[in-house]
Amino acid sequence: MKKVLFTFSSGGIGHATRSLAIANYLKNKDTEIVFGGFGPGLELIKLNGFKVYELPQPKFFPLEKIKIKDLIKPYFQHRKEYLKLFREFRPDVHVCDMELVSLIIGKIYARYNFLITHEFKPFNFKLGFKGLLRKWIIRNKEVFADITFYTWIEDIPLKKNRRLVGLLAYEEPAKKLRGKNKILYIPTGTSKNDVNLSEISKNIDATIYSRGYSGKNIKNIYKLKKVPNLFPYIKGVDLVICSGYSSIMECIIARTPCIVLPNTVEQIEVAEKCKLKGLCEIASKEDLLDKVSKLLFDFRARRNMIRKQKKLKNGAKEIANFILSLE
């Protein structure tokens, strides 16, 4: 039985979602799977029925105020916890989604140490210690990985230990949802652009589903319960409104038009690159209604976006099969 350890960045649910896409393709195939980490993604992993080694949640500081001393203590704390996990579980394969501490330890304690990332080039982080550190990590992280799997929409220079796998999603059949002109809203934990769903409901003839809606009970707006995999819902609606890259990836694989309301520097750059390729639309609060209406009712706009989405592949099963093939 092959022992596989997944670790992931706590930056958002998206990192856990990408790891889960691979893990679900490995499930029930003579593998023992354990996840290690902390943050909002843990709840989703537990919903999928995987074993979880939960690390202590560190104290976070605003990026503009963070100092070197704020990074030292969490590093040594996590190093200690990850060392304990690696020594107890003794993984054959370690799959790391952009979590540097576990990636370094995996280089020593795992037979195979793989990195999942979408950061080929540094995004435009502000300079200063935090920005310079992040840029150094992005440029040098491949040193610690046996193979780096890039989940990206553009071609990158390939070499022996680097593979471009496309996007990551765990595909399941579309969920049958009631209503017409169905919209799914996927807010993020860092959202600064919360969508006024009641405003959309008033102005557009649509049925709206939301993973995080907490407003008043309004006709045609439904709050989704927590589910192990959002992909069937993404595939079952006509349009998705989201922010994060993992949600965009799932929309592309589901061939569902999407509108992105980016919140962070990274989300803005990712969304702009996806828009240039015709894979999504970018909106603000001011023009959201117009763009929702266009992608719901303009057949040509919907068709063109779906055609572009069909050019990209799902790489989750490819990575899973590669792991299963290892001796």
Give me a quick take on this structure.
By secondary structure, the chain is an alpha/beta fold.
Summing up helix and strand content along with how strands pair, one would put the structural category as alpha/beta
Strand order, largest beta sheet: 3-2-1-4-5-6-7
Number of helices: 12
User: What does the overall shape look like?
Assistant: globular
Mean pLDDT: 87
CATH architecture type of the largest domain: 3-Layer(aba) Sandwich
CATH topology of the largest domain: Rossmann fold
The top-level CATH class of the largest domain is: Alpha Beta
User: Helix fraction?
Assistant: 40-55%
N-to-C order of helices and strands: EHEHEHEHEHEEEHEEHEHEHEHHH
Q: Based on DSSP secondary structure assignment, what is the total number of beta strands?
A: 13
Outline the biggest β-sheet: 7 strands, parallel
Strand content: 15-25%
What count of domains describes the coordinates?
A: 2
Distance between the termini: 11 Å
**CATH superfamily grouping of the largest domain:** Glycogen Phosphorylase B
Stretches where pLDDT is under 50 for at least 5 consecutive residues are none
Q: Report the radius of gyration as a whole number of Å.
A: 20 Å
Give me some keywords for this one.
327 residues; alpha/beta; Rossmann fold; 7-stranded parallel beta sheet; 6-stranded parallel beta sheet; 13 strands; 40% helix; globular
Give a description of the structure.
With 327 residues, this protein is α/β, with parallel strands linked by helices. The chain has 2 domains: 2-167 and 314-325, Rossmann fold, CATH 3.40.50.2000; 182-309, Rossmann fold (3-Layer(aba) Sandwich), CATH 3.40.50.2000. 40% of the residues lie in helices and 17% in strands. It has 12 helices and 13 strands. The chain has helices spanning 13-26, 41-47, 68-89, 100-109, 129-140, 197-203, 231-236, 245-254, 265-276, 288-297, 299-309, 316-325, and strands at residues 2-8, 31-37, 51-54, 93-97, 112-117, 147-150, 162-164, 182-185, 207-210, 221-223, 239-242, 258-260, 281-282. It has a 7-stranded parallel beta sheet with strand order 3-2-1-4-5-6-7, sandwiched between helices. A 6-stranded parallel beta sheet has the order 10-9-8-11-12-13, sandwiched between helices. Strand 1, helix 1 (13-26) and strand 2 form a beta-alpha-beta unit. Helix 1 runs parallel beside helix 2 (41-47) and helix 1 crosses helix 12 (316-325). The longest helix has 22 residues, at 68-89. The protein is globular, with a radius of gyration of 20 Å. The model has no long low-confidence stretch (mean pLDDT 87).
